[in-house]
Amino acid sequence: MGDLAITVNCHNPENLGLIVRIIGSHGMIPCTFLGEEPVHTWEVEVANTDAWILYVTDGYATIEKSGPAPDMFLRRIAPPENLLIDDEEIAGQLPLELQDV
């Protein structure tokens, strides 16, 4: 958990392109706008302090900082493989000494 994702193919266009942090699995829940079958959703929170997720339920709109998001509306954000730092590389580094200036 804690991965970042960008919202894509959103049911509400206002939510398109939001950067969100994955908090955990929200499980299989029905999304009537996607059909009758339940879909896997994630509990997410907006990573940007001045952005919100728009939810429309039974014709009522609300904005939230966190809530469920269908898996199909999220794309994980990950650095390119050659930019990942190996844990052994970090463990082998010597601690930096702070110097008085």
Question: How would you describe this structure in keywords?
Answer:
mainly beta, five-stranded antiparallel beta sheet, 7 strands, two-stranded antiparallel ribbon, 5% helix, globular, 101 residues
Largest sheet: 5 strands, antiparallel
Structure summary, number of beta strands: 7
The end-to-end span amounts to: 40 Å
Strand content: 35-45%
Total domain modules: 1
Helix/strand-derived category reads mainly beta
Low-confidence stretches: none
Count the DSSP helices.
1
* Order of the strands making up the biggest sheet: 6-3-2-1-7
Considering DSSP H and I runs of 4 or more, what fraction of the residues is helical? under 10%
H/E series: EEEEEEEH
| Oligomeric state of this protein | single chain
Rg (CA only): 19 Å
Describe the global form: globular
In round numbers, the mean pLDDT is 81
Topology:
Blueprint: E1 4-7, E2 19-30, E3 38-46, E4 53-57, E5 60-64, E6 66-70, E7 74-77, H1 87-91
Antiparallel strand pairs: 1-2, 1-7, 2-3, 3-6, 4-5
Gist of the model:
The protein has 101 residues and is mainly beta. Helices cover 5% and strands 44% of the residues.
Describe what you observe in this structure:
With 101 residues, the chain is mainly β. It is built from 1 helix and 7 strands. The radius of gyration is 19 Å and the shape is globular. The model has no long low-confidence stretch (mean pLDDT 81).
